[in-house]
From TrEMBL:
Gene: LOC113729511
Stored Pfam families: Glyco_trans_1_4 (PF13692), Glyco_transf_4 (PF13439)
Bilayer-crossing regions: 12-32
Family annotation (SUPFAM superfamilies): UDP-Glycosyltransferase/glycogen phosphorylase (SSF53756)
Protein name: Glycosyltransferase subfamily 4-like N-terminal domain-containing protein
Key words of the record: Membrane, Transmembrane, Transmembrane helix
Naturally occurring in which organism (per UniProt): Coffea arabica
Domain of life: Eukaryota
Glycosyltransferase subfamily 4-like N-terminal domain span: 93-267
Length: 488
């Protein structure tokens, strides 16, 4: 720093001298060489500045933008994870999918994971034959949450027996703030905050049919936000899973910037990738004619919140009014729920596949030309979007801030629409008019960008670095909180 300032000073000084001397043209030449040397040294300083060290804790963008070493670190951590439910490996949505992808990747990297979660009432808990992964099961409360007193006791027992935990991670309020408040080596990941949900409440109210009563969610949600603003700061570190949520946590929830870190969700890049053979096999298995000019896909639970009533109306109208589209478009629906039956009413253009296992889901993404996600739930980043992106498919989704700021950031990657039937129809027509060739191009761009941001490896490396940085041991943290940013 001192060096930079000196160079800057010299530079200014030289240039002043140069300007001054140039008015006396006869002697200015004598001083030129000295001045140019100063100017040169200033240029060098500028180049060195590009290789600067940044403090990760105050890094304002998604950590996914940074490159962390692929080799596991010299220091392996003992990590406690609190998560309401640990899902069956292949059938996980949302928060649970995040929890398994992240923590199983950390286990693979050699860290010791202790997972505090509820025992499935089914007693069909999947055991993993891995020595550095240990489950601490407990009976859920009547509402299905972790029994706080019980898990806290389990945690303390494990924490005092042998090696203490280096870091504690809670998925949402798995560990509640009442217990978490004194832990400085703790990070909470938010997968849905009340402020973001206000947008969903507004949409739902606008879509409400006049014969249904107004939901009191509209007024209660704001109270919920105030409550969250009060208790969130009790957690030491916060991970926002989208850029938008990061901004809200800092601005609306007023959490200091060095305690809010953006790490976008990631999905398995080894599973979700372009594979022409898989597309062919999938199409032939489900009898999807290769002659169809366009195949749209939707995946996830087929419920109202996910925008299926809107999509149903839009498709119904388009299929009725446009015979070209009716003859050439196929819509694949992966998932189940009440809207599955409704979609079947639309006839042979719609194929409702039911829920798919992970491997089959990879075939599904390959078989489609575009993924349509009409969700009305403003809650972080939907995994289906990221899986489609890594498979090289463009996206079409609702204009929700987490999606438009972190995934569909431009028209080159996909299409966005407002959550109403006319806007959705307009976007669907645009997709049809653009056609397969343009969609393929958008899909390629989406994948190029996605590989830099949304891989499971990226996500796990970012969390690992955050954990190393906030871990108990002060000696190590100092180095792990620094990052050498290389430019060029
Ligand atoms: C920046 O860092 C990289 C890697 O450490 C190094 O190869 C490069 O020479 C550095 N550039 C400058 C201008 O110091
Ligand atoms: C138990 O598992 C079966 C099949 O996996 C499922 O149909 C059932 O709903 C589960 N019951 C509970 C209580 O989770
Ligand atoms: C946290 O620290 C406060 C003040 O030291 C103490 O009163 C409280 O019992 C602690 N809470 C927990 C859950 O350890
Ligand atoms: C269907 O829509 C497309 C795209 O807007 C249009 O080019 C075509 O003429 C329409 N076909 C029919 C039969 O309405």
């Amino acid at each position: 720093m001192a060096n930079d300032q000196r160079n800057l000073f010299n530079f200014r000084y030289c240039c002043c001298v140069l300007v001054f001397l140039s008015t006396f043209s006869s002697i200015s030449f004598l001083y030129w060489s000295h001045c140019s040397k100063c100017c040169y040294s200033e240029t060098q300083t500028a180049v060195q500045e590009q290789n600067r060290t940044i403090n990760l804790l105050t890094y304002p963008s998604a950590w996914n933008n940074l490159n962390f070493p692929s080799k596991p670190p010299a220091r392996l951590l003992k990590v406690a994870l609190f998560v309401k439910k640990w899902p069956d490996k292949h059938r996980a949505g949302g928060l649970e999918r995040h929890a398994t992808t992240l923590h199983l990747t950390l286990v693979e990297r050699g860290h010791e994971l202790h997972i505090f979660t509820t025992a499935s009432s089914n007693s069909s808990f999947t055991e993993y034959p891995i020595s550095n992964l240990k489950f601490h099961l407990s009976k859920p409360t009547a509402a299905g949450y972790l029994d706080q007193a019980g898990v806290w006791k389990q945690f303390q027992t494990e924490n005092s027996a042998g090696r203490a935990f280096d870091v504690i991670h809670t998925e949402s309020v798995g560990l509640m703030h009442t217990r978490a408040r004194n832990l400085t080596n703790l990070a909470v990941s938010w997968h849905g905050i009340a402020y973001e949900s206000i947008h969903s409440d507004i949409i739902q109210e606008l879509l409400r049919s006049p014969d249904k009563p107004q939901s009191n969610l509209l007024t209660q949600r704001v109270k919920k936000v105030v409550e969250e603003v009060r208790f969130f700061p009790r957690y030491a570190h916060h991970v926002a899973t989208s850029d938008h949520v990061g901004d809200v946590l800092k601005r609306i929830y007023m959490i200091p910037e060095d305690r809010v870190h953006i790490i976008l969700n990631g999905v398995y890049e080894g599973v979700f990738k372009p594979d022409a053979l898989k597309a062919k096999v999938f199409k032939s298995k489900f009898g999807i004619p290769e002659s169809k000019a366009l195949v749209l896909g939707m995946a996830g639970r087929l419920v109202k919140d996910k925008g299926h009533p809107l999509m149903f109306q839009a498709l119904k109208q388009i299929l009725k009014e446009n015979s070209t589209i009716r003859d050439n478009v196929m819509v694949l629906v992966a998932g189940d729920g009440p809207w599955g039956e409704r979609y079947r009413e639309l006839g042979s253009n719609l194929l409702v596949l039911g829920p798919l296992e992970q491997a089959e889901l990879a075939g599904f993404y390959n078989a489609i030309d575009i993924l349509v996600n009409p969700t009305l739930r403003a809650q972080g980043l939907d995994h289906t979007l990221l899986e489609a992106v890594l498979t090289g498919k463009p996206l079409m989704a609702t204009k929700l801030a987490s999606i438009t700021e972190s995934v569909i950031v431009s028209k080159e990657i996909g299409y966005t629409f407002s959550p109403n039937v006319p806007s959705l129809k307009k976007a669907l027509y645009e997709v049809w008019e653009d056609g397969r060739v343009i969609l393929e191009k958008k899909g390629q761009l989406a994948r190029e960008r996605g590989l830099k941001l949304y891989t499971a490896t990226k996500m796990a490396a970012a969390y690992e670095r955050l954990f190393l940085c906030i871990a108990h041991d002060r000696e190590y943290r100092r180095d792990y909180c620094k990052y050498q940013q290389q430019v060029g």
